């Protein structure tokens, strides 16, 4: 079976995508699959990565592939494969853009479908939909930047008015983040007015919509969902052992920032798993996802859902299913089979 692995692209999660893809390649069974790694640079040009797949183990976040050959007509080229794995986090991949193109061109692909990808990439829209379906999320407000004004509810605000609105709604600390981004890029924990004033422009450099969210004093828990044979499986629950699980803690720290399985009562474990399954179904996800929750007392609050979860050597998704005795390679096989049969 011929499989192409797409990774990189103009997403601000470019380097994480590289690390995920190389980890996937190193764990795919070379006896079952003929694997072709295809790298998209930051201008979205396609390249063959001319390195024997047997020599691809993993790249650290921040490393780039070398020895590349341009692909002149990439979508025509991709039609030769039995399956194209979209290992692109964030823009172009996780937002459903490439999935939409592949649907149109009738190219088999492994990723979530276009509509849930587009919806879940937008944190604000996701929170609105899920709260409408009785899924709790942390208290939030949001702003849309339009020219030099900031739209809040039905009002146009100046920057100073926006800052005043934020501090009148939240106690320190709280979080600000872009509505469309991942891997904790552009997420800032705000402890004072000066931090708020300095970090807001950085968020708007990533996205024109800014989400302000209350900080949680609870535990941070994660649950992965796998669709296999058209059945949904919820993973054991993992716990993030970090005061702020930012980009560094996720991908570059040498410390063990996760506890699997989390120490929870059977009832709470089942409640979190059932909520993750419900979210998957409400948003019409496909194949896989990972939900991140806060646990405050006995109440659970969704933090976010990832429709192309990380597959780096430190990522939670494969670790959670390893706890369920589904090895990394077996997990990849299941995802491939489901994608081919969808």
Layout of strands and helices, then pairs:
Layout: E1 2-8, H1 14-27, E2 34-40, E3 46-49, E4 68-70, H2 74-78, E5 83-86, H3 97-105, E6 109-110, H4 114-121, H5 123-132, E7 140-146, E8 149-152, E9 155-157, H6 159-169, E10 174-178, E11 188-190, H7 193-204, E12 209-214, E13 219-228, E14 231-234, E15 238-240, H8 247-251, E16 258-259, H9 266-282, E17 288-296, E18 299-306, H10 316-322, H11 328-340
Parallel strand pairs: 1-2, 1-5, 5-6
Antiparallel strand pairs: 2-3, 3-4, 7-8, 7-12, 8-9, 10-11, 10-12, 13-14, 13-15, 13-17, 15-16, 17-18
Instruction: Give the count of structural domains.
Output: 3
What do we call the CATH homologous superfamily of the largest domain?
ATP-grasp fold, B domain
As a whole number of angstroms, the C-alpha radius of gyration is 20 Å
Strand content: 25-35%
Note poorly predicted spans. 244-255
Average pLDDT: 92
Number of helices: 11
Distance between the termini: 17 Å
> Helix fraction?
25-40%
CATH class of the largest domain: Alpha Beta
Record the strand order, biggest sheet: 4-3-2-1-5-6
